[in-house]
Design brief:
10% of the residues lie in helices and 62% in strands. By secondary structure, it is mainly beta.
Length: 201
């Protein structure tokens, strides 16, 4: 009886260990800061924005020991200010921005440190918030398509958890919210550093 119990215990430990080694998925939650650069356009419209604080949720699936695909959902809120020759005081738009994106991730392994690079694409959903911070009622919600890239490092604190820090960039057209006076005919690179924790399963 003791031998059977020992055999069952060893099989269970072996199965759990095997499953832990075959961990191919992870989810992560991160805090983010979004920095939109100042833009001066060919249409004489200038665009600036405050720094936005938000969050990012990601899911990764390992295709190979080094390669993975990733899906992301991000959310933040900030104010964007537009100035032009016909509106010197400027129009301000209070924006709730959502990111839906996917990327290919390539990992490197150095003991507990796992640097990675990623590239992909996605959409930014710019939703104007109608409150006192939005000074033009002619703006509408808008979606822009763009390219995503990033470089980061994950530090393994246990077989199931790691701390992940990353610099992300999103290249997309400057939004005009469907209101022609705000059109810049420009693209810009949104900077998005993030830090969070990932759970592997």
């Amino acid at each position: 009886m003791k031998k059977i119990a020992l055999l069952v215990l060893l099989c269970t430990v072996g199965l759990v260990t095997g499953r832990a080694q075959e961990s191919r998925q992870d989810v992560s939650l991160s805090g983010s800061v979004q920095i939109q650069p100042f833009v001066a356009s060919t249409t004489d419209v200038q665009v600036g924005a405050k720094r936005a604080i938000g969050g990012l949720a990601s899911y990764r699936f390992m295709l190979t020991p080094r390669g993975a695909v990733e899906a992301n959902y991000g959310l933040n809120q900030n104010n964007i200010l537009y100035r032009g020759p016909s509106f010197q005081k400027g129009y301000q738009v209070n924006v709730r921005q959502q990111e839906i994106s996917a990327a290919y991730v390539y990992n490197f392994n150095f003991k507990n440190f796992n640097p990675f690079v990623e590239a992909g694409g996605g959409a930014l959903l710019w939703q104007n918030i109608r409150n006192l911070a939005t000074t033009s009622l002619d703006v509408k919600n808008q979606t822009t398509i763009g390219g995503l890239y990033g470089v980061g490092v994950a530090y393994e604190i246990s077989p199931s958890f790691d701390i992940r820090a990353e610099y992300r960039g999103f290249v997309t057209k400057v939004p005009d919210f469907g209101y022609s006076p705000l059109n810049t005919n420009k693209f810009y690179n949104i900077y998005n550093p993030v830090i969070g924790i990932a759970y592997h399963f």
